[in-house]
Amino acid sequence: MILLAALLIYEVWGKADVIEQQAVLVDIGSTYTKVTIVDLRRADIVAQGKSVTTVKEDVTLGLEQALRAAGVQLESLARFRLRLACSSAAGGLSLVAIGLVPELTAEAARRAALGAGAVVRRVYSYQLTPQEMAEMEALSPDIILLAGGTDGGEAKTIVHNAKMLANSALRVPVVVAGNKIVAEQVMEILCQQGVDARLTENVMPRLNVLNVEPAQQVIRQVFLEHIVQAKGLDRAEALLDAVAMPTPSAVLAGARLLADGLNDDEEPGWGELMVVDVGGATTDVHSVAEGGPTRANVVYRGLPEPRVKRTVEGDLGLRVSAPSLLAALGEARMRRAMGDKAPQNLSALIEQWSREVGHLPQTEEEWALEVALGRGAVELAVTRHVGRLEELPTPRGLMFVQRGKDLSEVGIVVGTGGIFAHHPLAAIVLQGAVANERDPFLLAPRQPRLYLDRRYILWAAGLLANYEPRVALRLMKRYLIAVETTPPPTRPSG
What we know:
By secondary structure, the protein is of the alpha/beta class. About 35% of the residues lie in helices and about 20% in strands. The protein is built from 17 helices and 19 strands. The strands form 4 sheets. It has a 6-stranded mixed sheet with strand order 14-12-11-17-18-19, with helices on both faces. It has a 5-stranded mixed sheet with strand order 3-2-1-4-10. Strands 6-5-7-8-9 form a 5-stranded parallel sheet, sandwiched between helices. Mean pLDDT is about 90; it is low at about 5-15 and about 485-494.
């Protein structure tokens, strides 16, 4: 009896000790809630589970089901060392950006929002009109980023736009990141009408000089303070330590850590890289690279590109946005890609998938359609993310103008999202990120090593990055799976 009691006590305490060295990582997505249990001592995935997200009812219902699928009972949850979550549920962090000139402060505001993990619903420029205000009210964003004017530059527009916002029906947080000369006046206009306004530094203090990180920090803080509660995620947060960030921010944090590594020789990063995240509603592309010209006969034009960049393509999803993805690709292109596996009722099937967002391919025809859609989404999203060259004849010979980031020398491309985790032909989908001979002026990666995120580890590592960065980095190195790449294409001569 005494021996049996001792064994039972040892087993209970032993399990408790194991749990206390583990982290529960949760992604409350728009379709599925995913749970990953990580052993922090061994940098190892212990278990994973998922369930349909139940944000419209009670988000904890789906969370509890996902936890059980990973072998975690609610009564033991408090004993885990870390319990962290990210979320893109209920449309993610929806944002409207307002600036002055489309190519300058409006673009700077858009970049600040995307880098903070937001989904940018619309970007407005110049003075807002009543029609635009009505449109903005119909969009009902979670947050507004109000920019406009360099410091000491044009000031009337941002003041006008502040008055329009203050007198509108919108009562969402407004981040003020424009001309510092009138920033206090703008804050007063908004606050007098009860708007929750947050002042931060100008996203473009001088012409062609970007300063987006202060605005990004405020956007993330607003997410933690307001958006979590507004979307009902606070009920999940009561079971966890925090819903720490939007899911895109977690993926970007993971990508940055994987590229840069730690500040020691023991855990180096992989160097400059790109991450392609294909989802049901959007396809996101993240790059961690300088992106400057890589050849002597190239001159750069346009706004400077951030080293850590994210773009979101809301028309390139595989389910919700499948009809717009088909329109962007063209039905003829899709049929060529699928060959004899192309269905007669292609458009009807795409419409059905857009309504049944949880649908998984069942037939050979559907698997082929998923590949064609996925590769098309990757190709278009990468094309929009990277820069390109334009020929410039000069008296000294042919030169090239570069607009956007030159990612042609990037050595790593990682595919994350459901299609890369589950599809047997995921490598073919990811090869859509590699530059091809059809457009030699596109500055996409030419000869990268390709990796598949088969275990959904990027977002989980991003959540861990601020708490256990070494563990997070080792997890990515361990679970990202290398695949074969295609031969390098040719480049423009000169």
